[in-house]
Amino acid sequence: MAPTHGNYHHYYNKRPLLRLHSFPPSIFTGRQILDVGTNDGHLAVAVAQSLGPRIITGVDIDQTLVDAAWRHRLAIWSQAGSDNQPAYFPASFAHELGPLPIPSGHDRTVFPHNVVFRCADWTKDEIPEDKAGYDVVLAYVG
After folding, report:
1. pTM to 2 decimal places
2. Is residue 64 a contact partner of residue 136, using CB atoms and an 8 Å limit?
3. Cα-Cα-Cα-Cα dihedral of 26, 57, 142, 23, to 10°?
4. CA-to-CA dists, residue 6 to 2, 3, 9, 52, 87, angstroms
5. Phi, psi (5° rounding) for residue 137?
6. Among the residues of the chain, which ranges form H helices?
7. Around 129, how many Cα atoms within 13 Å sit in the side-chain half-sphere?
8. What is the pLDDT of residues 124-137, one digit of tens each?
């Protein structure tokens, strides 16, 4: 199925997250972040897991990509170690045994609870996280 809004499905399969290392971690730690045009959530999940934001909200206009972002969050959670160490378990574990369930009732500022995704045209539609405002807005124009 062709993207309906010009989105590039599997964008991060061809372009690694090199730009994430361009920012000092202090920009993200404890902050409320908006990722406009989140695509399939790779950047938002990487920030949520490794850089300690209070919350990061990924927004994309394409529901297919937002669904992929939620799946990516679950896949990365399933590979993390008990101390949230990235890629502790191989991806094959989740493929063979299924993803790990995300525990409920945990600290909402810790991965995987500190990342959410919304399907919206953020320039026109309000989303629940807008009310609190944002400290950092990520938007990639490339």
Report:
1. 0.84
2. no
3. 10
4. 9, 6, 9, 31, 31
5. -120, 125
6. 11-14, 42-50, 63-79, 91-97
7. 24
8. 999 999 999 999 99
Are residues 35 and 57 in contact, defined by beta-carbon separation less than 8 angstroms? yes
Tell me the pLDDT of the chain (142 aa) as tens digits.
Answer: 444 555 666 665 555 566 777 889 999 999 999 999 998 999 999 999 999 999 999 999 999 999 999 999 999 988 888 777 777 777 787 778 878 888 887 788 999 999 999 999 988 999 999 999 999 999 876 6
How far apart are alpha carbons 137 and 131 in whole angstroms? 14
Output the six-digit token pair for 31: 């902050």
Q: Any long-range contacts for 104-110 (C-beta under 8 Å, 24+ apart)?
A: 108/55, 109/30, 109/52, 109/53, 109/54, 109/55, 110/84
Residue 55 main-chain phi, psi, to 5 deg: -160, 145
| Region of 40 on the Ramachandran plot (φ > 0 left; ψ -120 to 50 alpha; else beta) | alpha
Fold of 26-139: Rossmann fold (3.40.50)
Phi-psi region for residue 30, left (φ > 0), alpha (ψ -120 to 50) or beta?
Answer: left
